[in-house]
Specification:
This protein is of the alpha/beta class. The chain folds into 2 domains: about 270 residues, Aldehyde Dehydrogenase, Chain A, domain 1 (3-Layer(aba) Sandwich); about 190 residues, Aldehyde Dehydrogenase, Chain A, domain 2 (3-Layer(aba) Sandwich). The structure holds nicotinamide-adenine-dinucleotide (NAD). The site of nicotinamide-adenine-dinucleotide has 32 residues, from helix 7 and helix 8.
Length: about 475
């Protein structure tokens, strides 16, 4: 059985106490590899390596850092097939999805930040009346921690690591213990690309051991975290009293809003992705669909039919629109929410059951895409994050009615609006409580734009220069002449 290794001080090594955790393939329900169950002492080793590497990495020059990150980006592209397959085995997503989205975007993240750092300028402020000039330098923080979730494993991992490294920091990173494989493959690519030892250290393991050791380590000066809101809260409670810089990208319960005047065909096909892409396990998926009363019945009928026909199957098959959910505990959690929805008075319009897709996937974690109608907008099913292929469908009267329901949740990550009325698009986008709003599209990403949520969906922004700002410390120098 394949054993994943930690990547510390430029080498692939076993965890110090030599203990491992089983890693399951969600499509088959079988253990297929093992990952280090790293502890505090492994994190300590990684921090020592990072500290030792920081001096040289932070001063080697932007061009050199950029060169190495570009090399990593192109090696990811060259190894697309191997990475996409590994991501699919680990996560349960269709291979075609990892090939088209996850891995190319991970490669783009390295490319983007390798070049963004060359254009990252600092500010100066001239005080004409007193003849003084302020200039503000931005320097890397030092050793930083990056912790990521399982839904878009390499994509989100690289979204943190790339800007941290580009800015000149040394990194202790932990991927999710549920999907460690592509970050392990990335460590091999970093060696091949000539990344100096200790600059990036990847420590595998559980949140309560390896993760919390990274967060609590006094030498780790900033934490960039993506994951659940509860975990974010626990991390903040440790990191905030230590005055660490914190970026928290957390949960969501996003509204997908369809007005009477929407382009129906576009709203239908985009809503299929918005609701069920990656088995509904994208933080930006819309899990609460609001449809205006005038088109509600027509939309419902057509959408339910479309989803009914959606093929759930072996992630290796190119005609499988949806693959497996990420783990047994996760599918059980999602099923509990379907039971809760029924208790709360909801009607299942389609789905609601597991699927045996047969063959090698007999024991896999497959669930039919599920649409539920008839729930109060304040009930738990409509308020809590499910993070699976389950959406609710709710009619609304007008903008006022819609905004009351859409903004009723504790989260505020993303929203989608379908309308052909430009004034309405602006009005609603302006009043929706979310960090990201898409109108007549979804998941269209310009890497320069700020990414993140409001309310309990997080603190801070990733993306573009926001990420480079997060991973640097400012100093203002005022000179009078
Ligand atoms: P999770 O919070 O359980 O775990 C995320 C990471 O944190 C994992 O690597 C885990 O090992 C680690 N971790 C767990 N406990 C920790 C602790 N006490 N200290 C340090 N690290 C710890 O989340 P998950 O189940 O992997 O991912 C799903 C969640 O992620 C959903 O809530 C989803 O909305 C959210 N998410 C948010 C975004 C975003 O950009 N806002 C993107 C993707 C996923």
């Amino acid at each position: 059985m394949q054993k994943i290794q930690n990547y510390i001080n430029g080498e692939l090594i076993a965890p110090l106490d030599n203990t491992y955790i089983d890693n399951y393939e969600p499509a088959t329900g079988k253990v297929y590899s093992q990952i280090p169950n790293s502890k505090e002492e492994d994190v300590e080793l990684a921090v020592k390596a990072a500290e030792a590497a920081f001096g040289e990495w932070s001063t080697c020059g932007i061009a050199e850092r950029s060169r190495i990150l570009l090399k990593i980006s192109s090696l990811l592209k060259e190894n697309l097939e191997e990475f996409a397959k590994a991501e699919s085995i680990d996560n349960g997503k269709p291979v075609w999805l990892a090939t088209q989205v996850d891995i190319p975007r991970a490669s783009s993240n390295f490319h983007f930040f390798a070049t963004a750092i060359e254009h990252f300028a600092s500010e100066s402020h001239y005080m004409e009346e007193v003849k003084a000039i302020n200039f503000t330098t931005r320097k890397p923080i030092g050793v930083v921690g990056c912790i990521s979730p399982w839904n878009l494993p390499l994509y989100l991992f690289s979204w943190k690591i790339a800007p941290a490294l580009a800015a000149g920091n040394c990194v202790i990173a932990k991927p999710s213990e549920v999907t460690p494989m592509t970050s392990y493959l990335l460590s091999k690519i970093c060696i091949e690309a000539g990344l100096p030892k200790g600059v990036l250290n990847i420590v595998h393991g559980l949140g309560q051991h390896a993760g919390s050791a990274i967060v609590a380590h006094p030498k780790v000066k900033a934490i960039s975290f993506t994951g659940g809101t509860g975990t974010g809260k626990a991390i903040a409670s440790v990191a905030a009293p230590m005055f660490k810089k914190l970026s928290l990208e957390l949960g969501g319960k996003n509204p997908n809003i369809i007005f009477d005047d929407a382009d129906l065909e576009k709203a239908l096909s985009e809503s299929m992705r918005i609701s069920f892409a990656n088995q509904g396990q994208i933080c930006l998926c819309g899990s609460r669909m609001f449809v205006q009363k005038g088109i509600y019945e027509t939309f419902k009928k057509r959408f339910v039919k479309m989803i009914d026909e959606l093929k759930v199957g072996d992630p290796n098959n190119s005609d499988s629109k949806m693959g497996a959910l990420v783990s047994k505990p996760h599918i059980e959690k999602v099923q509990q929410y379907i039971d809760l929805a029924k208790e709360e008075g909801g009607t299942i319009l389609t789905g609601g059951t597991t699927v045996n897709v047969g063959g090698r996937c007999e024991e896999g974690y497959f669930l039919r895409p599920t649409i539920i109608e008839g729930l109060d907008y304040m009930c738990r099913t409509n308020q809590e994050e499910i993070f699976g292929p389950v959406i609710t469908l709710t009619p609304f009267e007008d903008e006022e009615d819609l905004l009351k329901m859409a903004n009723s949740v504790e989260y505020g990550l993303a929203a989608t609006i379908f309308t052909q009325d430009i004034d309405r698009a602006h009005r609603v986008a302006d009043q929706i409580e979310a960090g990201i709003v898409w109108v007549n599209t979804w998941l269209l990403r310009d890497l320069r734009t700020p990414f993140g949520g409001v309310k309990n969906s997080g603190v801070g922004r990733e993306g573009g220069f926001e990420a480079l700002k997060f991973f640097t410390e400012q100093k203002n120098i005022c000179i009078k002449y």
